[in-house]
């Protein structure tokens, strides 16, 4: 049985979110923010992904083992990723501009200190820890600032911004080689530090989204009800509304794009007036963190950014979503549907228990502690708690995706670090060998554009695209051991750069397909943590294998097997989804039968 499309009305959840955060303007100064993010990706990712050039110089200068030297790049990438949740909490408290400027200064200062290093151990702390944490403070605001300014055109805006990553690798690989040849590695690192310092200027362009909404009195008048009256009643103490049941008598089936045969039951929105108990109950279920933020910062008038004590942008459910919100399957089919209800259905089906809410004392307090002893602001704790909520690991689908992501991250950085050294071992000149990283960069740029465009089509199975790309990437990496001349390496670099673009570009949209938009922040935070841990392992393992076997081939075999395995294992997600749905259906059927039997006996 089918139902007519629900009327396009905004729910109380959407209205409350609009009150707390200005609506994305989808243009204007946002395009300046896109340019700044694009340039930041050129600099930071260019420095990171062209590290293979400096790696060769460090090998020759310090005479350390391959594994020991590779720890520099591993710590750099690992700390950058692992610092994601911390960076998010800072962004939530201080905003994108301040955090980006601080990260730029920290990264540049630590690179300058690296110039005076006399051993590899010093570089672990300066380039690895210091610059890695600085880049972590830059990386996340560069994405978040774009998503704050765009909603309808977000896919285009974020696509332009992240393309700077591939272009940065294309530019910095030969540039670093030239700087090393002219000034030595110390002079090259000093100049790179100056380039990183320019991110201070770019970060200053991350202006907060202007709130042009008129105040309640100016926009609504005395007779017109404010769209957030329901939220106001809730925050004034109408707890009884929270206990009213959520109506689920009318169901409409929608299909997440990545799972072509998975049906998810979504409630048809009620036609009751705004502010009813049902709306408030659904709001409490779908936006617990948002309500927590609201209780501490909600004011009776809206439209003034000065009323907000912190940026609070991390409370947005779609903050890490890089595609257009209007292209989310259930958002497109039912614009009035609360995102949290879609997530709730997926979470319940996969057997995940609801998250624990904060105590009343913590909600009323403006500051709190982490782990019972570390003082921090409420915004900081909210963000860290949201991103590092390990209850999501009860979800078998997310566990499988996390294991896949971990395996991909183990092999991801090995080509970036060792491809130049492997090519030099095959008697390819250093200047040509460094160009291979540039080939990866330009192929990655093309791959992100094409894969992002294709995956945004409603008829495309994004999970299948992701799986196929990772499988091809892994097989090509393992076969790179057969490359013996420059042009065969160019072919491999092109395939690797293009296909690995799926790993970076499609992760967030697939997480939304699998878990729902409401759990994206949590899932993305945990993935950043596991990606960082995996990044610590990949390059050192390949280096230790070289030290033991005197060949780079085993390291590329490891990278190829882990990346290919990460793609292959995700082909089992549809079967796992069907099993979980069947189990959930049988459990509900059993409970219904037990209830009927008890009623008959009575």
Secondary-structure topology with pairs:
Layout: H1 12-20, H2 30-49, H3 51-62, H4 66-82, H5 84-94, H6 96-114, H7 120-149, H8 154-197, H9 199-204, H10 216-219, H11 229-235, E1 251-254, E2 264-267, H12 277-286, H13 288-297, H14 329-333, H15 339-349, H16 360-364, E3 367-370, E4 374-377, H17 378-387, H18 396-425, H19 430-455, H20 462-479, H21 486-499, H22 501-505, H23 507-515, H24 520-549, H25 553-568, H26 573-601
Antiparallel strand pairs: 1-2, 3-4
Keywords:
4 strands, 68% helix, 3% strand, 602 residues, two-stranded antiparallel ribbon, two-stranded antiparallel sheet, mainly alpha, globular, disordered N terminus, single chain
Short synopsis of the structure:
The chain has 602 residues and is an all-alpha fold. The protein contains 26 helices and 4 strands.
What does this structure look like?
The strands form two sheets. The protein has a two-stranded antiparallel ribbon with strand order 1-2. Strands 3-4 form a two-stranded antiparallel sheet. It starts with 11 loop residues before the first helix and ends with a helix. By secondary structure, it is mainly α. It is globular and about 75 Å long. Helix 4 runs antiparallel to helix 24, helix 5 crosses helix 7 and helix 18 packs antiparallel against helix 25.
């Amino acid at each position: 049985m089918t139902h007519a499309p629900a009327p396009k009305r905004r729910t109380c959840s959407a209205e409350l979110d609009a009150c707390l955060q200005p609506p994305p303007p989808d243009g204007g100064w946002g395009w300046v923010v896109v340019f700044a993010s694009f340039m930041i990706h050129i600099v930071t990712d260019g420095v990171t992904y062209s590290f293979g050039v400096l790696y060769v110089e460090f090998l020759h200068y310090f005479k350390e083992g391959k594994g020991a030297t590779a720890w520099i790049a591993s710590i750099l990438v690992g700390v950058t990723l692992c610092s994601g949740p911390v960076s998010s909490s800072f962004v939530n408290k201080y905003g994108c501009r301040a955090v980006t400027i601080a990260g730029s200064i920290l990264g540049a200062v630590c690179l300058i200190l690296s110039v005076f290093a006399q051993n590899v151990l010093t570089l672990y702390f300066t380039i690895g820890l210091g610059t890695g944490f600085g880049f972590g403070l830059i990386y996340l605001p560069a994405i978040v600032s774009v998503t704050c300014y765009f909603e309808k055109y977000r896919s285009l805006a974020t696509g332009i911004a992240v393309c700077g990553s591939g272009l940065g690798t294309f530019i910095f690989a030969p540039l670093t080689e030239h700087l090393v040849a002219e000034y030595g590695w110390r002079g090259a690192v000093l100049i790179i530090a100056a380039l990183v310092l320019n991110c201070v200027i770019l970060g200053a362009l991350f202006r907060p989204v202007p709130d042009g909404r008129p105040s309640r009195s100016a926009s609504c008048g005395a007779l017109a009800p404010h769209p957030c009256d329901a939220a106001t009643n809730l925050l004034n103490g109408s707890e009884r509304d929270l206990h009213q049941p959520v109506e689920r008598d009318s169901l409409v089936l929608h299909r997440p794009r990545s799972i072509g045969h998975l049906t998810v039951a979504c409630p048809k929105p009620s036609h009751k007036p705004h502010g009813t108990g049902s709306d408030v109950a659904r709001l409490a279920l779908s936006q617990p963190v948002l309500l927590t933020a609201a209780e501490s910062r909600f004011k009776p008038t809206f439209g003034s950014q000065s009323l907000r004590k912190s940026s609070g942008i991390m409370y947005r459910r779609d903050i890490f979503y890089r595609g257009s919100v209007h292209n989310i399957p259930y958002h497109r089919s039912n614009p009035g549907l609360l995102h949290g209800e879609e997530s709730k259905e997926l979470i319940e089906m996969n057997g995940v228990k609801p998250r624990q809410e904060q105590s009343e004392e913590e909600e009323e307090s403006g500051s709190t502690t982490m782990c019972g002893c570390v003082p921090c602001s409420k915004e900081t704790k909210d963000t860290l708690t949201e991103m590092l909520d390990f209850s999501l690991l009860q979800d078998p689908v997310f566990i499988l995706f996390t294991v896949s992501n971990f395996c991909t991250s183990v092999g991801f950085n090995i080509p970036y670090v060792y491809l130049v050294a492997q090519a030099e071992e095959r008697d390819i000149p250093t200047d040509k060998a460094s160009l291979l990283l540039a080939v990866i960069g330009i192929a990655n740029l093309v791959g992100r554009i094409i894969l992002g465009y294709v995956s945004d089509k409603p008829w495309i199975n994004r999970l299948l695209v992701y799986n196929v790309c990772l499988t091809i990437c892994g097989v090509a990496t393992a076969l790179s051991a057969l490359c013996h001349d420059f042009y065969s390496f160019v072919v491999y670099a092109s395939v690797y750069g293009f296909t690995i673009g799926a790993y970076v570009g499609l992760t967030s949209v697939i997480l939304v397909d699998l878990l729902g938009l409401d759990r994206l922040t949590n899932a993305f935070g945990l993935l950043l943590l596991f990606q960082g841990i995996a990044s610590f392992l990949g390059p050192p393992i390949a280096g230790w294998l070289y030290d033991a076997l005197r060949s780079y081939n085993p390291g590329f075999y490891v990278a190829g097997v882990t990346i290919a395995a990460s793609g292959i294992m995700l082909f089992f997600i549809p079967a796992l989804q069907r099993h979980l749905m069947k189990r959930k259906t049988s459990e509900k059927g059993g409970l219904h039968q037990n209830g009927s039997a008890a009623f008959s006996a009575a």
